Amino acid sequence: MAELSYEINKEIALIINRRGQVINVTVGDADTVELPTFKNIREGEARLCGLRCIHTHPNGNADLSKTDLTALLNNRFDVIASIGVDPDKTFSRKKGENPNFADSIQVAFLLPDKNDKGDIWEIQPTATVREVSNKDFEEFLEEVERNFAKNYKDKAQVETESAILVSLQTDDISNFLLKDSLNELEQLAFTAGAKVASKIVQKRNRPDPATYIGSGKAKEISLLVQEKNANLVIFDAELSPNQQKKLEATIGVKTIDRTELILDIFAQRARTKEGKLQVELAQLKYLYPRLIGEGLSLSRQGGGGIGGGIATRGPGETKLEIDRRRIRTRISFLENEVNKIKNLRDYQRRQRQKNNLPVVSIVGYTNVGKSTLLTALSNSEIFAEDKLFATLDPTTRKIRLPQGDFALFSDTVGFIQRLPTSLIAAFRATLEEVAESDIILHLIDPMHPAWSEHVDTVYDILLELNSNKKPVVTVINKADLIKDRNQIEKIKDKLPNPIEISALKRKGLNDLLLKLESIINNETFVKS
Predict the structure, then answer these.
(1) Of 165, 285, 300, 331, which has fewest CB within 10 angstroms of its CB?
(2) Which residues contact 275 (CB under 8 A, 6 or more apart)?
């Protein structure tokens, strides 16, 4: 094999099973060889596939490349070996041997877990072919597989996923916006239950139509996935179905986009029947155009149980058993149910209007403290957590104003940059609480470096909801933490009806209620 590889100056790969039978021969070029997809082999994380790959390096260097090691991991070979082809026998002569062309060989095998170097493979020192052939790998492989099986059982108890975040910086995206968006994606991943193993930024003039970041970068990420032992890749964008399918095929692990990540968080956070219906509708509308093949996008779906991982919660799908017709039927049913919710909310609003109580909607970027503010104003316990989208289902409280009148305050779902359109559509019954309110109470967090961009996002969504003409009170939360008064004054000059508060410390709340009361009592105020 080494002699033939030398004559044609191309890599040759042999695939050998545990019976010693050669089941495949593949010829590549001078630097690489592309292996086929192997069928009817042993599969599963708890064991190896039962095949060994022996291939040549015509350049004489037996060192295994990153591509070789990726093939080892992706195919779960028993071992992979590379033969350095050298007719001058530079390496073996030093060992006192005199082969024809197979001068040296390097062998690697998988490990059940990372070693001290952080690798999930063990690379043996380069040796002569005779030295390696005298070793008995059978007993060694049995021990390795026992360790794989034990480690697999241990990992099954751990729910945390290890993710690599990927962002694309085009010419129109500044370094500040890129960093802020990637940091937000990290927060979203944390909220969904993943730990971030690494972040990758690709710079291009425009997204690649096929793989978004380019095929070369996708291959780099595939190698990084193996190095970091990651099992999830998250893109800070909305990928097309075709892009997602190609990326998963190249990277080799579950690959999702920003939209799917947000949908997963909503699936976790939905508590009421209403919220669950709306999330399922959004997820199925996202899933529908992606039912185009047998890639990881389909096979990874496991339904709404615990432990399925990110992008497997919510409605789920039983692999290819759910077809487009069944999904269309389910979407139609859910849309009818959401319409019933809309009708119910319309009825509830009409009842409130009979009571002539003004309605105040608390809006703002996610995790700015809306639930904390409503808790402080109503002296009630409303769930709040320092995570994005900590609360999903809307909450309404009746609150007394300083002069004795009452108003209804509603806490809505948090806004975020590039909030998926499918979510806005599915949650229209909930978001219409904003559209039908009398006053918008816009809560902002001036401590966040991108607060101005967050304000723009909120106003964009208000415009989409046809709520941009309503009276707005700007609530500057955490104002007590801002030492530079000039910054506060700049915010006040920019935004309407500004009021400084601290929701957590319950400071400035009376001033806020007085401001709302003055708007309600103004002769120009008109109820919705």
Answers:
(1) 331
(2) 266, 269, 392, 393, 430
